[in-house]
Design a protein that fits this description.
InterPro entries: HTH_58_Actinobacteria-type. Residues 5-66 form the Helix-turn-helix domain. This is Helix-turn-helix domain-containing protein. The protein is mainly α. Helix content is 48%, strand content 0%. The chain contains three helices and no strands. It has helices spanning 13-28, 33-40, 44-53. The longest helix is centred in the first third of the chain and has 16 residues, at 13-28. The N and C termini lie far apart (47 Å). The relative contact order is 0.17. The mean pLDDT is 83.
Length: 71
């Protein structure tokens, strides 16, 4: 993956497109958004936004989200 970019620095043009492609590839391989954020030194929100802008189909959350099932 790309070397870590200083958190908060702006990425535009080719740099942003390159990072978006790398993040999309990593996400498609099964890496989580949090793992990608840690690898790149960016925030969860930044990675989520880049993936959304790249029109990547995001996976749903795992685990129980509504509590226990009724018997």
């Amino acid at each position: 993956m790309t070397e870590t970019v200083k958190k908060g620095s702006r990425l535009t043009g080719v740099e942003r497109e390159t990072l978006a492609a790398e993040l999309s590839r990593g996400y498609a391989e099964g890496k989580s958004i949090r793992a990608l954020a840690e690898e790149t030194g960016r925030s969860y929100g930044f990675v989520h936004r880049i993936l959304s802008e790249s029109e990547v189909s995001l996976r749903s959350r795992g685990g129980a989200t509504r509590g226990r099932a009724r018997p």
